[in-house]
Amino acid sequence: MRGVAAFLAAALAILCAAAAPAAASVSVELGVDRSEVYLGESANLTVTVSGTMDAGEPSLENMGDFIVRGGGASSRISIVNGSFSKSKSYSYEIVPRRTGIFTLGPATVTAAGNTYRSNSLSLTVSKAPSGETDGSGPVFATATLEMETAYPGQEILYKLSVYHSAQLADRVTLTLPDVPGLTFTPLGEPANHTAMIRGVRYGLIEASYAVSAQEPGTYEIAPARMDVPIVVSDRRGGGGPGFPDVDFFGFSWRQKRNVPVYTKEFTLKVEPFPDHGRPADFGGLVGRFSLTAQVSPARIKANESATLTVKVSGQGNVRAIPDLAMPRQDLLKVYPDKPLFEEQPGPAGTSGAKTMKWALVPQAAGTIEIPAFSLSFFDPIAKTYKETSTPVLSLAVDPDGRPESATPAPPAVPGAAAAKKQVEVLGQDIQTIHESLSGLAEASPGGPDPVLIVLLVLPAAIWLSCLLARRLSRKSEKLARAMGARKSFAALEKTMRALPGNDAEGLWKACCAYVSARLLLPGSGLTPAEAARKLQEAGASAEDAEKFGAILARLEGSVFTSRTGLSVEKDKEEIAAVIKSMEKNLP
Length: 587
Fold this sequence. Notes:
By secondary structure, this protein is an alpha+beta fold.
């Protein structure tokens, strides 16, 4: 029930926020996935409009030296900690016409009669280096190392590029060099672009890594190997020119061939940190970092608490950011919280932040100074040590303002005898005040006090009611989940009717979703063998489970090989028959 209430509340919040007029805090951000490209290659440009989804198509400035192709738009609505946000992103593919350093943007959009402008970006376009992209054949690869001299912990950009003019039959398999002492950290997912070389258009797959070593020394980076599966046609079986690439009785005239390609090797020299100017608190942090601190609220009453937040953020070996210590304070009780670490890989390296918090409880009124925090790191670009620090903060503590426990009595007059006063009854409370023993004698014993009985019985009754309601809620939730699982076959049948007759990928995903929904499994990423095993464990016969797994394997093979576009109508019939048989035994 709580889940339903939370869903309704979230839905109401979305409707209310969507119905509200466009917020004034509209912003436009321009982004590009590459800062450097070769002439003939492409880059992906994005324009993100935050705060509204009613803005018009962006207008891009300073794009005369590029070919611009629109890639569509996408919208996003999110609610994080009760904060509602909405945005719309536009994507473009840009191809440079000449070499040079260019300024991209800004982009301008119009929303609710107002015009908003984005930031500008820089893109460097250079000629392809000789011997690197002048490959021959349908597939070749290159590698670049940002620099060949570094310091311990410093991230060096290592980029691998695969060029292919032939059609890919599957995913490219990459084998990175195995160098003891070196770490290769992926900087996001591989990106897909296009490149024009010698008048031939190539597909381009780029993968970027951050290479780092913790110890000084010389490291030999061997060539990386990539196995590129391409589609080739083999008609030696008698098909002859002009015959289509079709499948006869399981034999295809269209075949796949793996082409292994290699990159060149590199030598990386890692030098030790310099001794000159090395701070005493330096712990191996390398990169560029900043340090901020704030206390909230800045004014409280005694015995209340405030929160001190210190954040270290920057780019480099962010995992080496230390946990800063809060100095001891005599007038404060300090309760540390668990640090929060964030890491974000990007095209230029790894950025991140560590946030540390302490609860501060003052023990006396007044102004309490919170000393500055400091952090030392090594800047590999400037080749020198640097230190960042926070200012000294103040916490104002007011008296708690609680009332005095009693009013002070007037001073006594020396020598004066205190006059004895007769006790007077000023008022009566709930119970009758007996002024003599005769009142007690007249009271006759009676039965149990009904108020006492209610006080004794009521907690037990409330506890039993809550227990019963909880059990009923769990039973209802379990029943609802079971009913939803049983409806999963009907959902699959509806999906199969709507799928085109050659959509093997859609049918494969629908079958995986059916298994997850029917067996109440998290996610839908099941292999055919896992799906068969889970179904058999749930009660399906071994024959039906294996048959369903075989169908899944066949569909999966069609998705990840070149055998696409074939009819799956027979597969639909087999799936419906085997699931009807399994449903008889599934709970």
